[in-house]
Fold:
Amino acid sequence: MSDMSRVSAAFQAFMKEAPEHQQAWLEAVGKLEGASALDAKTGELVYIGILAAARLESGLAFHVAHARALGATREEIISAVLAGLPAVGNGVIQALPVALQAYDQAD
Structure:
């Protein structure tokens, strides 16, 4: 995680205050990614949709920037955020401005 500006304050506190737990978490995430049949970009887009559906906007900036680095378009980010609309309702639209701001600010 080289660009800490996109890491939420909560996750930064987790990294600082519980480094062993954070390391275990990252190892588990790596293993889950390795077991996935999805390519990296698709996996990020799915994860963005899950964050939006769970109303966890704090993680969006990091994951949107990562998806963009993997080649995701602005339209794909919008579609990922809104994918949960039929299942969880309009709560996902709360994530849309956060995700688009992160996309537009990503290098």
Remarks:
- The radius of gyration is 14 Å.
- Helices lie at 9-17, 19-35, 40-53, 60-69, 74-82, 85-88, 95-105.
- The chain has a mean pLDDT of 93.
- DSSP finds seven helices and no strands in the chain.
